[in-house]
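Example 594, ligand 1-O-alpha-D-glucopyranosyl-D-fructose.
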Amino acid sequence: MKRRLELLLPLLAACAHTAPPATTPNPPAVEISTPRRAWWKQVVVYQVYPRSFQDSDNNGVGDLRGIVSRLNYIKSLGVDVVWLNPVYQSPNDDNGYDISDYRAIMPEMGTMADFDSLLQGLHRRGIKLVMDLVVNHTSDEHPWFQQSRSSRTNPYRDFYHWWPAERGTPAKRWSFFDEEGSAWRYDSTTQAFYLHYFSRKQPDLKWENPRVRREVYDIMRFWFDKGVDGFRMDVIPFISKDTTFPPLPAAYHGDYVAYYAKGPKVHEYLQEMNREVLSKYDIMTVGEGGGVAVEDALKFVAEDRHELQTFFQFELVDHWGRRPGNWLYPDSSNRSLPALKGIFTKWDSVFATSGWGTVFLGNHDQSRMVSRYGNDTPRYRNASAKMLQTLLLTMRATPYIYDGDELGMANIRFTDIRDYRDLMTINYYNRLKREGGDLREFLAGQAELSRDNGRTPMQWSADSNAGFTAGVPWIRINPDYRMVNVAAEERDTGSVLHYFRRMIQLRKSEPLLVYGKYQLLDRENPEVFAYTRSLQGRTLMVALSFSAKGGMTALPAGYTSGKILINNLASSPLQGTRLELGAYQAVVLELTRD
Ligand code: TEU
């Protein structure tokens, strides 16, 4: 029956859209929005940042065998998929996002045999593995680039974007990481500039060349044939370029990322990739969708486009608490709970009838979620970390949890530039220094926002170096590890870790939390984010206090009581049909009408 209903849904949707009378603003709210089911919509994904997860050979860098030794822990969380950041051969200018051999493992991470045992170990435990696919650019040490730069007539010349110097200086393109800000780098060997949206050691591949695309598809097949279960595709909307390289159109001044994400052939290439590779395997795909505006979202993920299944949207993480126009600096006035709710609600509605969303609040490019969206002071850290987990696990979207966030790990807040390892922070600092900028202000901002906040090692125990390594860790360990670590949280049933496991169990036992319709409540409430999720006559309500002062809200009209399914504090917030939430309180209730 359920299956038949699903088959009917697109039909119902089509009917609902046939020419309503001119006066009807919206089609009636029939439950046409129940999405088709798929395994990759139901999973909870756990992101493992391999450099910082577990070191097995005491060189201070996490590695594959280290992850293998922690598989039972990963299994115990209840997650279904691991997304692994790049472990391929790389000179590590950008921690593996600069690949010099796509079919080899970098020695710091181990060997291909170690990779195989990780894949088998995960599969034996019923966990899938998603790899990072970084193909907008390679390392400048990749043999393709070595060939390409060697002469203008080399067969690999056309694997990258070159601008011959006799044509003058190319039109400005901004780089995310470059010390001088430009995405063009002059190379004297052939007297030409090459394009690099990221660091000068990350030249952009020329997707316009069909040989490049064939190589990429071969790499993808290599990993799928090994048994990996999907790809997270790094900056995938950037792959297509207008190769005439005109001046950046005025509409994109101040937002070059949006321009990069709108290349003329991006959809043609993704459709080809889907036809050639993705459609042949039962796998999952998630594109890193930086720069993709909400109105373009479905072009990437609507089922009938045959491109990707999902992507990460950056509207929240790129702007929340950041200075408009320069994301390296914080701006605490640039955060309001109604705005945050608006973003979640808008993105939910995009995928109401086709496509599918993702939700995340932290990853290896972000500071820690509890520090950024919650409150990491000792008094509120646990409650606010649990509250944010509740949000992630009750949205209609595939949730991604970054390692350490299941413990409530917080920002380390480096104050000395020598502690930083991230080229983005270091290069920008050097540039500012050269230009005589305000270094103190910059460092104060990075203490809150730097990517290294999210890259400090996993905190396993109160032993030395948090049980991460017996060597010298590649980046400092947050000194709070003595309090916040896996071993301590395992012992304490009230810990963030225990709550995380309960919350995952709740999501997995309630298909409603995956597929149910989302409805925002109490839109303007400045302290409480509340919404319902409903499916087949049942309704759950989620109420989250984003404030140390707590907050008030109420059951939606028509409901008289609620049964608490999960609560991150000991006290019940229910007072009749009102909810009086404590500081950072989070509850999920099943609503009833008497
Ligand atoms: O990140 C791309 C990146 O810089 C985004 O975080 C960007 O700020 C966003 O898309 C803009 O909206 C990816 C990787 O996650 C990162 O670690 C790499 O450094 C980068 O690509 C280069 O490969």
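Summary: Residues 210-226 form the longest helix (17 residues).
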